[in-house]
Design brief:
With about 140 residues, this protein is mainly alpha-helical. It has seven helices and two strands. The chain has two domains: about 1-90, no CATH class; about 100-135, no CATH class.
């Protein structure tokens, strides 16, 4: 990215079966270091950040405070499990399927279609979900 900004980790990265969590932690740290591109600032704590925190049963701002206090991704996840909701494996599987398929024939499909049209590199038929969109938009293969 230009101007000293850094791209966040992949949205598909997982930690102990929790998809997206490492990206959220990375965005928080990059924002704090002023290396997160301004285009990401509007949705901090919203969208996939919010859904991940809701799944874990923790408040985004509380988790953010732990991360900025120096917690690694692993330590942040331990904190979230201690202060949030314990989920069985089948709910982890449900959440993974949910977050990986957002935008595919659901209530956000029209929004994904609009976002794809904003840039020729993302206006592609093989982009079926927001995860696909994020990866393509940030220059990773889908």
């Amino acid at each position: 990215m230009p101007d000293g900004y850094e791209m966040p980790r992949s949205a598909r990265d997982e930690l102990e079966g929790i998809v997206y969590f490492p990206r959220m932690c990375d965005k928080i740290r990059k924002r704090n270091a002023n290396t997160l591109h301004p285009e990401f600032l509007t949705n901090l704590g919203l969208g996939m950040d919010l859904w991940t925190c809701q799944f874990l049963g923790v408040d985004y701002h509380d988790l953010k405070r732990e991360i900025l206090a120096g917690a690694t991704d692993e330590q942040a996840l331990i904190w979230a499990r201690e202060h949030g909701v314990t989920r069985p494996d089948y709910e982890k599987a449900w959440f993974t399927a949910y977050i990986k398929t957002r935008g595919f024939r659901d209530d956000l499909a029209h929004r994904l279609a609009d976002r794809k049209k904003e840039d020729p590199k993302t206006d592609r038929d093989d982009i079926l979900t927001f995860m696909d969109y994020i990866e393509a938009d940030e220059g990773r293969s889908i």
